[in-house]
């Protein structure tokens, strides 16, 4: 093709995701077109105003085997465009170390953030080749870096240099009472990666006898030094699954708070369903990993090491305040240690199931390679579908792609999805209307090339929970006293003025996040006829101590409906609620609440993308008409104009029309035929039991393949 033609393909692509796909060909051409002209063509593109092409050219430059390419990439670390500095830091990790780049990378690592994570990752790779040079650079940085945050990050990076010569400064920092506590904690945590050193063990044991944060970190470090648990074979499978950005609990008490959304609910119910005692193949143990305190992490590791069967929860202490997934990338090292701690305690894991293009999956994939654990990965076009939606809406362009990428890390996450899919033993996919086309055009995966590696597995819900909720809500609508969850809903509805208490409800459940479209739903409802026809109930979000993502959505909502006018306008913000309460509230939207809400309300999902949509399925199972995104999973199970209405949810006008049509359709119903049809759709294909049966087969296939490979090697 040639370097210029390949660059023209990137520039000429009609869609942003198409340009990202074309960037792979550009990188390939760069790898076989070394020389001054190739470097000139790429550096010229990097200097241009087309930010997406500049990023593509930066990654292509990283494939050119030439000293001048190294020099150009090193210069980009000082670019006045921050997004180029980030991409240069990542690309340099694939090349031989450069001493003249090391100082700038250390400075980036000290600064922190996503760019700091990329710089630290590159330095960690370089430490395997030039550890002594890096050690000198890091010790030099510690002389001049005195602020606690940057100094902590330099010490963390120092801890990634595995040479014995790095142990000495770590011990000195850990012992020094003049060092700030976070700095000492970083040194203590790093010492947990240095076995067979009596001085290290003695120091950690001394700290472990203390109370407080340093004691917690030392006790975790001692766990890290312990030998892996002995493998225990029972004949059944041991499956590990991960969602780092939630405090997952068996009781599902924090649904919708922070990142405790549908995925947290799913993993609890799926883990339980996988353990069906009469299933073949049999799963004996499910380890669900999520964040937690240091104390919980120690207890869970001990429980898992003891070989307890059933559904057990492994805690990964992030040793920081909870942050949203978009801001959690700097926690890569501490997340990796926590995940490694749990999986080593397990003794043996047959398969690790990853689902997200986030820091948890990035860290867990590293651990899986280290411990030789096969991975199953749920592949979805995320962030690819989000990029495509924003592109279609005009909210993301070539000229702004780099600036958006600084916040949303589109390029890195897209490539992470592709790498995880390529490395996985098996891929799990959600149903989509044009699955093969979307995976090929958005993600670059040809599902027909190796179909045995891919399995379409719809997500599922627990119908027992839904059916109990429907029964309770119907009984209350018929005159029986409310149960405790429904009494909570009544208390919220009583805040409405009398003139609004005879209206039906539009309800939405989920995290308060831009991708979930929470504020867009409010905008569609408030500016038009809907505000006079229905009240809007939003369930989810931490209203007392919101995360940054939640705060951003709340600010947008407040700009549309000021907080002191919410009740008068008919807007109800419930915050996060226990999952079983949410199920009853959603069912009550169908049947109404006597004297407070009319029956035949509607469920609304305003997500920019929804790969499958657990909350939508739960609403359908409860008998509600639904509004959902016109794409992804919902388009495969929502019957247009019958069980629900699909819309381009990024378009406020289109979303509003779908909400109006859905409310009219629900209000026109005189019987339960459509509600029964909605439930039958879910019962036929989308139960948690059906999902568990499919995944058991996937996991057994991975184990059988591993056993066959071991037998062949041992023959």
Describe the structure.
This protein is 55% helix and 9% strand. It is of the alpha/beta class and 715 residues long. Among the domains are: 237-373, Rossmann fold (3-Layer(aba) Sandwich); 463-686, Rossmann fold. A 7-stranded parallel sheet has the order 3-2-1-4-5-6-7, with helices on both faces. A 6-stranded parallel sheet has the order 10-9-8-11-12-13, sandwiched between helices. The chain is globular and about 75 Å long. The two termini are 46 Å apart.
List the helices and strands and how they pair.
Layout: H1 3-12, H2 16-31, H3 36-46, H4 51-61, H5 67-76, H6 82-92, H7 99-111, H8 113-126, H9 131-144, H10 148-158, H11 167-175, H12 181-191, H13 198-208, H14 213-225, E1 237-242, H15 262-274, E2 283-291, H16 294-305, E3 310-316, H17 332-346, E4 351-354, H18 359-371, E5 375-379, H19 384-392, H20 401-408, H21 410-423, E6 426-429, H22 435-443, E7 454-456, H23 463-477, H24 484-493, E8 505-509, H25 518-526, H26 530-533, E9 535-539, H27 548-560, H28 566-569, E10 571-575, H29 579-591, E11 602-604, H30 614-621, E12 625-629, H31 634-637, E13 644-647, H32 652-668, H33 673-685, H34 688-714
Parallel strand pairs: 1-2, 1-4, 2-3, 4-5, 5-6, 6-7, 8-9, 8-11, 9-10, 11-12, 12-13
Helix pairs in contact: 1-2, 2-4, 3-4, 4-6, 5-6, 6-8, 6-20, 7-8, 7-9, 7-10, 9-10, 10-12, 11-12, 12-14, 13-14, 14-16, 15-34, 16-17, 17-18, 23-29, 25-27, 25-32, 30-33
